[in-house]
Write a structure and sequence with these properties.
Length: 368
């Protein structure tokens, strides 16, 4: 039914308009509890596997939502009702920003892929922290496993990037189950240059310091896991360097991979099936380099349960998707989770790198 709806209606809409319509529907459904329960029963119930540990939390399946769909944490409840075991929101920047000029999303229908040049459009870390605080303070608000992906504001120079990550981490960490430092989007000028180890080290240290300060201020115990998200276009040697830095700094893991710029279609990065082969290569390399004790989250080209199983077999502890969700519709998540269970796919290793978060006071939202 959804494929018919997509072919007749959605594919004729501007992709960003269609995305916003879907996001509004999922947000409304999540906030209206009768609708949320009904959707869960029809689409997600039975789609959970054996509970496992991921970054100190229990997740009910291997498949989560990648950053980019819910940039401002508006639809967490609805997305969970559709069957995502964990949800990564963002990318969130220190300052509010509109992103790049439209059009900035294009469908690649034959490949069932997307090309985007969004440019981190979001309301800024203060607004997103306020929304997450409201969610966490609500009944059952800490039941959701939420990652927060943070990036550099466009107006911030590369030499001042570390301060951006520090401030956003300080504002957001207390509400997150994990933080992801995004230095790999192709849509913010100069951002990918920050993947070089010499530039990345101070950013990761700043994010760690901001996250630690956030928990001290809120009264939450433990430590928020910190990961870095890398591009598929890095050389193998650069991937090894990032893995080495993760070990040196005691990072909790790596998210692999972001969109690719290895195409001749114009601006922006491509996501979806064209990423699958490289994504699996990077995950295998990271697991070999990092050993069993750090988390690897695989993302890129996940369109069915076999892709999830392949990422798990390659060494991922969990898997994220986004593009296939657009093409396959709201029932896709539960179907994939159920089929992965039937395939008997398992994680390469259960990760327990942080204690489950304690409910903090959630006090205040600091400005700079």
């Amino acid at each position: 039914m959804y494929r018919l709806f997509f072919n007749v209606f959605f594919r004729r809409l501007d992709p960003e308009r269609a995305h916003l319509m879907a996001l509004r529907w999922i947000t409304w459904m999540g906030e209206f509890s009768p609708a949320r329960r009904l959707v869960y029963q029809f689409m997600a119930a039975g789609g959970q596997g054996t509970p496992a540990r991921l970054l100190g939390r229990t997740v009910t399946g291997p498949l989560g939502l990648a950053a980019g769909f819910d940039k401002e944490a508006k639809a967490v409840k609805g997305l969970a009702a559709l069957g995502f075991a964990f949800i990564e929101v963002g990318t969130v920047t220190r300052f509010p920003q509109p992103g790049n000029a439209r059009p900035r999303i294009w469908r690649l229908l034959e490949e069932r892929a997307l090309r985007n040049a969004m440019g981190f459009n979001n309301a800024g870390s203060t607004a997103v922290a306020r929304r997450l605080r409201g969610l966490r303070d609500s009944k059952g608000g800490w039941d959701y496993v939420i990652g927060v992906n943070i990036g550099k504001s466009k107006v911030t120079s590369s030499k001042d990037a570390a301060q951006d990550y520090f401030v956003s981490a300080r504002r957001l960490a207390r509400y997150a189950d994990y933080l992801v430092v995004n230095v790999s989007s192709p849509n913010t000028p100069g951002l990918r240059d920050l993947q070089a180890v010499t530039a990345l080290r101070p950013i990761l240290l700043a994010a760690r310091a901001g996250a630690d300060e956030s928990l001290v201020r809120s009264g939450r115990s433990g430590r928020v896991p910190l990961l870095v998200k890398i591009a598929p276009d890095l050389s193998d040697e650069d991937i090894d360097s990032v893995a080495g830095l993760a070990e040196e700094l005691g990072l909790d893991g790596v998210v692999a991979v972001n969109t690719t710029i290895r195409h001749d279609l114009g601006e922006g990065g491509v996501s979806g099936p064209p990423l699958r082969a490289r994504g699996l290569e990077v995950v295998r390399r990271l697991r070999s380099r990092l050993g069993p004790d750090r988390t690897v989250i695989g993302v890129g080209g996940v369109t069915g349960p076999e892709d999830v199983a392949d990422y798990l077999a390659a060494g991922a502890d969990a898997v994220q998707a986004y593009t296939a969700f657009i093409y396959e519709g709201p029932g896709w998540v539960g179907r994939v989770q159920r089929r992965v269970v039937a395939l008997g796919a398992t994680r390469a290793g259960a990760i327990e790198s942080a204690a489950p978060p304690a409910k903090g006071s959630g006090d205040g939202l600091e400005e700079d």
